[in-house]
Structure formats: C-alpha cells, structure tokens
Amino acid sequence: MTIExxxxxxxxxxxxxxxxxxxxxxTVAPIHPNYKLSAKNLCRxxxxxxxxxxxxxxxxxxxxxxxxxxxxxxxxxxxxNVVNNxxxxxxxxxxxxxxxxxxxxxxxKTLLTHxxxxxxxxxxxxxxxxxxVTLPVEAAKDKKIIKELAESGMEIARINLSxxxxxxxxxxxxYIQEINNETSHNIIIYMDLSGPKLRIAPIExxxxxxxxxxxxxxxxxxxxxxxxxxxKGKTSKFNKHHKQTKIGEIGVLLPEIIDDxxxxxxxxxxxxxxxxxxxxxTADSATLRITKCYKSKLASEKGINLPDTKxxxxxxxxxxxxxxxxxxxxxDIVGYSFVRTASDVSFLQKQLNIHNAKDxxxxxxxxxxxAFENLPFILLEGMKSAPMGVMIARGDxxxxxxxxxxxxxxxxxxxxxxxxxxxxxxxxQVLENLAKTGxxxxxxxSDVVQGVHAECIMLNKGPFINDAVVLLKNILGRxxxxxxxxxxxxRALNVAQNALKPLLGIINPSHDV
Length: 513
Description:
Layout: H1 3-19, H2 21-27, H3 36-48, H4 54-62, H5 75-89, H6 105-120, E1 130-134, H7 143-152, E2 156-160, H8 166-182, E3 188-192, E4 205-206, E5 212-213, E6 215-217, E7 223-227, E8 237-238, E9 244-246, E10 248-251, H9 257-260, E11 266-269, E12 274-281, E13 285-293, E14 297-299, E15 304-305, H10 318-330, E16 333-336, H11 342-354, E17 361-366, H12 369-373, H13 375-382, E18 388-393, H14 394-401, H15 403-419, E19 424-427, H16 432-437, H17 442-451, E20 456-459, H18 465-479, H19 494-504
Helix pairs in contact: 1-5, 3-19, 11-13, 14-15
C-alpha cells in the first residue's frame, strides 16, 4: 500500500473519532469520575475496531511507524501520532491536535494499574498479575488449608456461595481475618454469587431391589422431552430396528426456560457434551432432537446452556439477595454470575446501594454468549461505580460460543477491557490437571502464559492446589518481565460494530475507507 493511501485512509478514521467526540462526551457523562477518561477511550476503541485494519499493519511496519495493534489503551493518541508521522515522512506539515482529551501509552498503563490496585486492594506487589484460589468447603474446618495457600502465593481467596452454607462461609472469613492479623499476608476476600442455575432436575429411574439410577441413556437422533412438570425422568424406548417407540423425558430446575426457548434453538447439556435442538414446543415442554453425543448418558442435575436463547431470568436470585448483607459486610469483591445486560449491572448496583456498599469491588462474570455480545454496555454501566473488573469464565463461555471460537472471543474480551482500563480475571481449568493429579500438562502451562495478559489468574481446588499456586507464582515472575498485555492484528470486530448505533447513534463508519 502506498504511503499516500495509507495516510489518507488512516486520516479518515482519525477524523471519524474527532467528529464523534461530542457524542462520546455525552455518552460517558454518567460515568464515575475515576473511569471517565477510560470510558472515552473505550468508545474510541469501538469506533476504531469497526474498521478492518489488517491491511495497514505491514505497510506501517515498512515505513517504521507504530502499529495500530498496540493502541487498545490509548486509541486517539496512538492513531494521531501514526497519521502525523506518515505526514512527516511525506514531507507534509504536521497538524496541531484538536482540543480533545488524550491518553498516552504511559497514562493508559497508569490508569489500568490504578484500577487494578483499587479492585484488588493491592499494596506491595512483586508481580502485576494476582493469584486467586477457590477455597474448598473443607477450609471451613481447617485454618491450615487457607494459611498454606497464602504461604504458597494465594493473594485472593474465592468463596463460592453456590457451595456450602452461611456457617461455613463465616468460618472461612474468620480464618482469613486471623491469618491476616497473625502474619504479613493480606488475603483479599472474593465472594461469588450463585445466580440462577440452569440444570436438569434430579433423575431417579427405578431399578431392581428398590434402587434407582440417576441418569438416562441418550443417542444421536433420539427425541427427548424437556418439561416444566415435576418428573424423575423417563428413558426412551427403541425397537429392534433402532426406531424410537417411546420418547424419554427430563425436567428442569428453572421451568421459566421453557417459556424462552424456541424452535431451532440449541440446548446443550453437561458442558456441551450432549447437544440437541428444539424441534417442537408446547406451553409446558419442548421436544428436543439429540444432534451430538460425546457421552452416552445424561446425568442428574447436569448444567444446561442455551446459546441461542435470550432468557428472561433475573441475574440475582432470591438466594443471592438474601446473601447480599453477608457479602457486603465481609467481602472485598463480589462476583456477579449470569450477568447478561447493562440492566443486570444496574440492578446489582441498586441492591448494593441498599446495603450502603457503594465501594465494594464488583467483578462481572462473562460466561454466556449474550454477556459477551453486550460487553461494551456492561462495561459502561459498570463504570458508573468503582471499582470493577471482568472475569472470563471460559468454561460456560466456550460451550455457548463454540470451542473453535473460544480463544478468539477471550482475546476480544481482553482487548475491550484493556481499552476500558478494566482489570480481567482469567478463570476456568487453569492448571487443573496439576491441581487434581500433581502433574501439569504442556498445554496448561501454555494457557498460564496466555493468562499473564490478564490482571488476575484464578485456580480451582484440588489435592495438589498448593503445587499449582507455587508453579503459577514462578511462571508469573518469569513471564511478566517479557510482556505487558497482548498485541494482535486488527480485523473489524462485530461486537464493536454492533455497539456503535445504540451507544453513539453511528451505523458502521468503515464504508468511508
């Protein structure tokens, strides 16, 4: 690409950002003062990423000019300097920047570091990426479990409110407070709200001698009924020619999903191990056709994912609301499960205000397709309060968006959050084999290296969890010296293009280039 074409195209993109500055100012007006600059940068990033920028990278490198792929945290400043340098190379006069608030590279790092320290209440840090560990229920009976984790390198203790009870959680908190008082550790308490559980109802299929089995056999092309009625499950029947003669049946723990699921919507079970599609529907049930089986049995209370369905379920359940007073009193950070929209964010903030917990850190867990598609809106709504962060809950997210897209999507989440200067927690199956068996795989070591581009890495429990924490701490010490964040080629992002019209009233501007 000629330098003239390069300069012309990038100048048009820069002008697009300049022309929309007033709209951006109006959009970020309700944002918390600590995040206002970051919210402006996020809006500029959405404009930038509505263009396909891949064709410009090689040419920029040929001319010795900074790549646009380094600009997540300081969009306008970087693009302005790129355009100005191209003009200088051509012998053209440079232009004074318009009166628009700029964020440079150093400022962007400062903002992200500040926001990270605020969320994780960090003091002295030897490494930038924090280590979070999910406490096992057994930690409520044994203070030593928590102390050993802290000595291994755990900085944030995660209490999952989906498991255990108030008495157990309270004991964990007491132990953490004692350890903090007795030692130099400063363990931060993170509590995860449960959110609505999309699960199969309990299955009890009668067997001989008054025994029951808690699963049903399934096969491809089989039809099965998903019902809101109370049922213990029924097994399908087939004749000797393998033709189905009786349709099996399973119940759901949240019957409301029957209202929302529609014909041709996918219904996935057991972390995507069994895939199905809705072929017919009544007011009380949906008939599914099994399309893929990576397992031959569908077990009781396994999870359900609905990647094509917009669910009319509250992100906060009644149990979550009951637990909020405890969370607001003892947690430093609250994890918001099942968040899907900006209105979900607003609802939690109102609940926190009721308990006078405006300053508690909130982490929005991106664990479904709808949340990812709404991430710009979730970020901007969350930035009305501080501090905040985002968790990439890669397990459920991968099931919903497809495993082939999971790496791509988790990178897009990292980019959007870096543009907003919002810290990210890298979660799900990190060093899982090591934690469970004591032996790490090569793939999970590589996964940790990828996770260094986040601000926190979360490990789950296991008999060898202390070994996993020590290894993670050592990897962080080595890798953080090599990189800060992640740089990639810039194709146009659908999530950016789709956000522009509702946020700024702009239909995809890239047609001008």
